[in-house]
Write a structure and sequence with these properties.
Length: 271
Amino acid sequence: MRLQLSLEASALKNTSGRMSRRVADPYAEVYLLDDGEELIGTTDIVERNLSPKWYTPIFLDFDPNSNLWIKVKLTDDCSGRNVNIDMGSAMVDVSAIYKDSQDGNAHKAPLDDGSGSVILWAHESYDLHSFFNFKFRGLHIKNIEIGKLGLGSTDPFYEVYKKHSYLSADKERWQLIHRCKKIKNHLNPMWEEEELNMEAFCDNDMDKDIKIQLWDYQNSGKHRSMGEVETSTSEIVEKKTMRGNADRTGALMFKPPNIVLWERWRRLLLK
């Protein structure tokens, strides 16, 4: 069985100390504990956040009838400094993660230094070697960051989530699967083209529920929500623009209104 793991953390200790204005930029490394430690995946870095949600999935092969343990090591990325800072680690039984996830519950493991916890989910996954290319643009985003003297504009970025439903437990959750880079001071941003594995993006299900959430970036890490829209991969494909940069035909409308997302173009590649 192939598993897809998603990771979060909560209540991490700020490595710069309580009196410092700097907040840690944590990332996670996952090691397979089988005759030593084998690195099997590294997450993205979440800036200025002590309860981070990482979008990078970790894949591993798993036999439900055997014992399999992993080590999750958290590190503060100190770019430009001599050394990164250890933020603790946890050893976790993969069977326990999978069982809790099947019941619609997160598996929470305390870090070895007592400074917070790592939170894990797992679901069965299949790699069909297919990829999804897309490029989003926002139109007429409301300016909520005017600033002094009427200067400044919103610094928008978006996150993409996929929905998991646990019918036996009558529960559901949204798994973060992508976070784009912010574009500073722009109300009609054209974000970079992205290519994601369909396994990670929508579990190879074009009709799986997808949510796109729009944010205004804040240096403090406390970003401001500007709305969201629920859709699917198949609808995103259908909504691609055909008539240039400002074509609003079929644009996805965010809630609250007056914020629209437009996909400039996309293509689905099979490799």
